[in-house]
């Protein structure tokens, strides 16, 4: 007697292979709590990379940059451009490591473990590092000077400084110069001139008060906190005036010389050719 069809596939024609008609149980996704450590790890790595190579937060510890920056402000510092060889420019507000002796006697904060960790990954401003923040007034090759009762001059050009703290003079508390800034170094000053121990006060140290560009962490480009003080930190117009650059006076002469040399050589060649022609006997017919 023929066997009755049981309704189960036997692998024959028209039938299904073993287990094929039953479908596979979908893989159960990981729970959020199992994924959370991985997400936190990725976030920490990204934060550390950003802090190391791109942007870092810094807290303003003093009044030396008033009114541009207030004590307690948080600024973001661009650390990327120095990696491409960019040098600090006049007028920029920069953060730099203590060149040596500038912060002697200043108390160093003692943060707790959590603050140290958050500072390390860049989620909190650096607390332990001895860093300073000032405005770049002159760069390598510049001559900077300020006499009592007068303005700051760079390469003979007067700086109109609207960013100076109201009521302060340009340098009456510490006149200086003229000082030639060495290559690879900068001259920095605080905006609150009568409350800033800047380049003027460290001329007896190595570098004569100037700061090596190697010590510069980066340019402060924005105030990020508190919310009511969020603002960009641009370069004042006084640093855009014509002829401020030390190269400015030399450039026209250099360009003129470069243009004159080919003309002199061309004229000399013509004179020589004319002299040779005059001395050569005329051909007989």
Automatic annotation (TrEMBL):
<feature type="transmembrane region" description="Helical">
    <location>
        <begin position="36"/>
        <end position="58"/>
    </location>
</feature>
<dbReference type="InterPro" id="IPR019533">
    <property type="entry name" value="Peptidase_S26"/>
</dbReference>
<keyword id="KW-0645">Protease</keyword>
<dbReference type="Pfam" id="PF10502">
    <property type="entry name" value="Peptidase_S26"/>
</dbReference>
<dbReference type="InterPro" id="IPR036286">
    <property type="entry name" value="LexA/Signal_pep-like_sf"/>
</dbReference>
<keyword id="KW-0472">Membrane</keyword>
<dbReference type="InterPro" id="IPR000223">
    <property type="entry name" value="Pept_S26A_signal_pept_1"/>
</dbReference>
<keyword id="KW-0812">Transmembrane</keyword>
<feature type="region of interest" description="Disordered">
    <location>
        <begin position="1"/>
        <end position="28"/>
    </location>
</feature>
<feature type="domain" description="Peptidase S26">
    <location>
        <begin position="34"/>
        <end position="225"/>
    </location>
</feature>
<keyword id="KW-0378">Hydrolase</keyword>
<comment type="similarity">
    <text>Belongs to the peptidase S26 family.</text>
</comment>
<feature type="compositionally biased region" description="Gly residues">
    <location>
        <begin position="9"/>
        <end position="20"/>
    </location>
</feature>
<protein>
    <recommendedName>
        <fullName>Signal peptidase I</fullName>
        <ecNumber>3.4.21.89</ecNumber>
    </recommendedName>
</protein>
<keyword id="KW-1133">Transmembrane helix</keyword>
<dbReference type="InterPro" id="IPR019758">
    <property type="entry name" value="Pept_S26A_signal_pept_1_CS"/>
</dbReference>
């Amino acid at each position: 007697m023929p066997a009755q069809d049981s309704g189960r596939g036997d692998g024959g024609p028209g039938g299904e292979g073993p287990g094929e008609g039953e479908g596979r149980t979908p893989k159960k996704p990981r729970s959020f709590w199992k994924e959370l450590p991985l997400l936190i790890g990725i976030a920490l790595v990204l934060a550390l990379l950003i802090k190391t190579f791109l942007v870092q937060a810094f807290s303003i510890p003093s009044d030396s940059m008033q009114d541009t920056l207030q004590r307690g402000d948080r600024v973001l510092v661009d650390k990327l451009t120095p990696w491409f060889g960019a040098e600090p420019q006049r007028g920029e507000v920069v953060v730099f490591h203590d060149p040596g002796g500038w912060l002697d006697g200043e108390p160093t904060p003692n943060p707790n473990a959590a603050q140290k960790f958050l500072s390390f990954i860049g989620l909190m401003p650096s607390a332990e590092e001895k860093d300073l923040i000032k405005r770049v007034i002159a760069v390598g090759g510049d001559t900077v000077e300020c006499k009592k009762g007068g303005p700051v001059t760079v390469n003979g050009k007067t700086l109109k400084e609207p960013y100076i703290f109201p009521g302060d003079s340009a340098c009456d508390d510490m006149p200086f110069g003229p000082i030639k800034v060495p290559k690879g170094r900068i001259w920095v000053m605080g905006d609150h001139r009568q409350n800033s121990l800047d380049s003027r006060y460290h001329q007896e140290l190595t570098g004569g008060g100037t700061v090596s560009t190697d010590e510069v962490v980066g340019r402060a480009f924005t105030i990020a906190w508190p919310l009511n003080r969020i603002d960009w930190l641009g370069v004042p117009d006084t640093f855009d005036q014509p002829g401020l650059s030390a190269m400015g006076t030399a450039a026209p002469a250099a360009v003129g010389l470069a243009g004159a040399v080919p003309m002199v050589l061309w004229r000399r060649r013509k004179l020589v050719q004319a002299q040779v022609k005059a001395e050569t006997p005329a051909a007989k017919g």
